[in-house]
Structure formats: structure tokens, C-alpha cells
Specification:
It is a single chain. This protein is α/β, with parallel strands linked by helices and 427 residues long. It folds into two domains: 378 residues, Thiolase/Chalcone synthase (Peroxisomal Thiolase, Chain A, domain 1); 39 residues, no CATH class. 33% of the residues lie in helices and 18% in strands. The longest helix is centred in the N-terminal third of the chain and has 20 residues. It is globular and about 70 Å long. The termini are close together. The relative contact order is 0.19.
Length: 427
């Protein structure tokens, strides 16, 4: 490999992925996840973590096999830690990571169980009207270091930084469902700009609780097709009715290709380009004309130095919400035109649900595994195709097909859009 192959079409350092880790409802680690995902197995199940009597949605894709408390911050750290440990190990980095850390983490707030416990401590158990005032009184007058630590937005990143020896102040971000892709973008930028030779990018979300479920239900965003659970997430179907809330974590070790080659690291793929655009149309709804998403997809292709014919497979955002699937199709058909009919487009969320903050990174890992294995994961539950969405969704069964380039889409609430382009290692 000559030195010229270490830079892209704009003379910037090419970014290699040398380590990956993942946890979803399908299992822990790349092997278990990929075997289940490519086999069309669903991780969606009936909720057992908290009571659901009286709720319209009673299903989820929670990670119930982790040995941790159900507090969102603790589970989010456990998911991030497991994924990071796998990624760093695969990258062959022993000891301090010696690079910056970018973490996509869910918003943190005091959970109801903690609020009630602190109100009880203030002797206000039966006085619900003044319970919040009591909670504030307890926090002002008595030390609660454990509670304070778990309620801080940056706590996951700080703990990961201490454990893995990253450098500088760890960055914690939240850009809705685009967060995982945004964390990767920040790592790419840090290397391209010459600020580091490597970066650790992590995304995690263990925040499925009753309060989150109710909030998304009030937005009419969740599927209510509870029986059977594994059939609820059905992207691009005419009878889709919402996404299935889920949890997960993923980590990627990014390095300049030159650095990775010089130390003899195994190259898992190239993070070739990204696009990121935002709009202010609505707090939850997508812009009806799809303009922000269209611009994001096009920006990713431009950044990667590819045209519409240069993508072999698209890992769709594919939430299974009526509006988002329609908008995504509009964006893809606009950018790819006649090429789209020849490009397979499938949705991981049909099997793992929507992992929210973690989704962009989780699906980046799956996209790179698609390139490595030559296997396209299916879109399961594809039984009633939407006639207005003409896509090859790799229906129901995986497909053996070699691809060397993947576009992975993340379109979040509030107009937060991010797309990643990943390719095979250059010859």
C-alpha cells in the first residue's frame, strides 16, 4: 500500500476502523448479534422490566441480560463499557487508549423511583403536592454522591475515559436519533484535522422505562401491535404503525489509515464520508418535502467522493413509522434516481427496534459487518409492501451479495440528520 492510498480525494487522511463492539437485545458481541441479525431473528419482546397494565404499547427491545440496575445511567454505562471493551480489544490497543473520546448518551434526568425515594427521605411520602419541593430540599441539605453521579449527563463518558485512558476532556453529545452517527463524525473530524491519530467513538442508550414509553406513546410514535412482539416493527409495510423502543450500545475505534497500517492493525473498513444537516420544521415531524434529509444524503456522498452509482447497499433509518419511512424513501429516490432500483435497502430496526441515541453507531457496526461478510441483513416482517415505497428491502431473508460501499442513514426528531458512508479497505 503506497502512501497516496492513505489520503482521500480531497487529500485528507483516510479513516480506518480497527475495532468494533456492540450490544443489542439480540445479544452481546459482534458474533452473536450478526448471527441473529443476518438470520432474521427479532429481539423484540414483551416488557417485563416494569408494569405495563393500561398502556397501549407493551413491547420493547430492552437489553435484559446485563448484570446491572435498571437505572438508565447505570445500564447505559454498562452497554457502553461492554461495547468499548470489545472494540478496544479487537483494535489490539493495550493500556491507555491515548486519543479523544466522543460519546453519544441519552438525556439524563432524575427517575421517578429516585424522586419518590428522596421525597420519602424528606418525610413527604403522602404529600404529593409538595413532593418535588421536598426532593429539592433533600438535595440541597444532604449529600447524595451516588445519586448525583448517576444524574449527571456526562457521567458515562467520564467513567469510560477513566477506564480506558482517553485523552483530553471527553465529549458527550445528544442529537436525538442521529447521536451515534454524530459521535462518529466528530471522531472523523478530529483525525482529518490532524488533532489525533486515533479516536474512540461510543454510543449508548439504556433508557427504556415507563416514563420514556409513555412520552413516546403520547407522541403517537410507538407501535401498538403488541401480539406477537416480534412482528411489530415492520418498516416500509403499508400497515406499519410506529417504532419499537429499544436499547443498545456500540463502539468504534477510528484511526488514520496510515497509523493503522504502520502498527499492523487489521483494517475492518474505511469511514469514507459523512453528511450532517438540521432543520427547524417541527419538534418531532420531518419536513414534508424531505429537503434536509435529501441534503444530508447528498452531503455524505459528496464528502466520500462518490456519486449515486458508487453505493452498493443502504442501511436505512427504517423506523417503521408511517411518516419517517415515507420521507426516507423520498430522500433516497431524489438523490439516487434510477440507480435506486438496483440498490438493496434494508432496516436493522425490523429486528432490534429503535435504539435511539445508540442507533447510528449500532447500525454503523452492522454496515461494516455487511461489507466484511458479503451478507445483506434482511428487513423482516415484510408482508404487506407499501405500494408508494418502491424499494428492494431484502425482504425477510438475508442475501449473499458482495458490497464494497454502504450508506447508513440516521434521521432524528427535531430535524437532526446524519449519514455515514463506509467502504472496504482500499487496495
Amino acid at each position: 500500500m503506497t502512501k497516496s492510498t492513505y489520503t482521500d480525494h480531497l487529500g485528507r487522511p483516510l479513516i480506518a476502523v480497527t475495532g468494533m463492539g456492540i450490544v443489542t437485545s439480540l445479544g452481546q458481541g459482534k458474533q452473536d448479534n450478526w448471527q441473529a441479525l443476518s438470520g432474521g431473528t427479532s429481539g423484540i419482546h414483551t416488557i417485563t422490566r416494569f408494569p405495563t397494565e393500561g398502556l397501549s404499547t407493551r413491547i420493547c427491545g430492552t437489553v435484559d441480560f446485563m448484570d446491572t440496575s435498571n437505572r438508565a445511567s447505570e445500564l447505559s454505562f454498562a452497554l457502553a463499557d461492554a461495547a468499548t471493551r470489545e472494540a478496544v480489544s479487537q483494535a489490539g490497543i493495550n493500556g491507555d487508549f491515548n486519543g479523544p473520546l466522543f460519546v453519544a448518551a441519552p438525556p439524563v434526568e432524575c427517575e421517578w423511583t429516585d424522586r419518590f425515594a428522596l421525597a420519602d427521605e424528606a418525610g413527604l411520602k403522602s404529600d404529593q403536592e409538595n413532593a418535588y419541593d421536598g426532593l429539592l430540599e433533600v438535595l440541597r441539605t444532604r449529600p447524595h454522591p451516588e445519586f448525583t453521579r448517576t444524574a449527571l449527563f456526562g457521567t458515562v463518558a467520564e467513567r469510560l475515559s477513566d477506564r480506558y485512558g482517553t485523552r483530553g476532556l471527553p465529549v458527550t453529545l445528544s442529537t436525538a436519533c442521529a447521536s451515534g452517527a454524530t459521535a462518529i463524525q466528530l471522531g472523523v473530524d478530529a483525525i482529518r484535522q490532524g488533532r489525533t491519530e486515533r479516536a474512540l467513538t461510543v454510543a449508548t442508550d439504556g433508557s427504556v422505562n415507563a416514563e420514556a414509553l409513555i412520552r413516546f406513546s403520547l407522541l403517537s410514535a410507538l407501535s401498538t401491535q403488541n401480539d406477537p412482539p416480534e412482528k411489530a416493527s415492520k418498516p416500509f409495510n403499508s400497515d406499519r404503525d410506529g417504532f419499537v423502543i429499544a436499547e443498545g450500545g456500540a463502539a468504534l475505534v477510528l484511526e488514520s489509515l496510515e497509523s493503522a497500517v504502520s502498527r499492523g492493525a487489521t483494517i475492518l473498513g474505511i469511514m469514507k464520508g459523512y453528511g450532517e444537516k438540521a432543520d427547524h420544521f417541527h419538534r418531532t415531524r420531518s419536513s414534508p418535502d424531505g429537503a434536509p434529509a435529501i441534503a444530508t444524503v447528498q452531503a455524505a456522498l459528496d464528502d466520500a467522493g462518490l456519486d449515486a452509482s458508487g453505493i452498493g447497499y443502504i442501511n436505512a433509518h427504517g423506523t417503521s413509522t408511517p411518516e419517517n419511512d415515507k420521507m426516507e424513501y423520498l430522500s433516497l429516490s431524489t438523490v439516487f434516481g434510477d440507480h435506486l432500483s438496483a440498490i438493496p435497502v434494508s432496516s436493522n430496526k425490523s429486528m432490534i427496534g429503535h435504539t435511539l441515541t445508540a442507533a447510528g453507531a449500532v447500525e454503523a457496526v452492522f454496515s461494516l459487518l455487511t461489507i466484511q461478510t458479503g451478507t445483506l441483513p434482511p428487513t423482516i416482517n415484510y408482508e404487506n409492501p407499501d405500494p408508494a415505497i418502491e424499494l428492494d428491502v431484502v425482504p425477510n431473508v438475508k442475501r449473499d451479495q458482495a458490497v464494497t460501499s454502504v450508506l447508513s442513514n440516521s434521521f432524528g426528531f427535531g430535524g437532526q440528520n446524519a449519514c455515514l458512508v463506509m467502504t472496504a479497505e482500499p487496495a
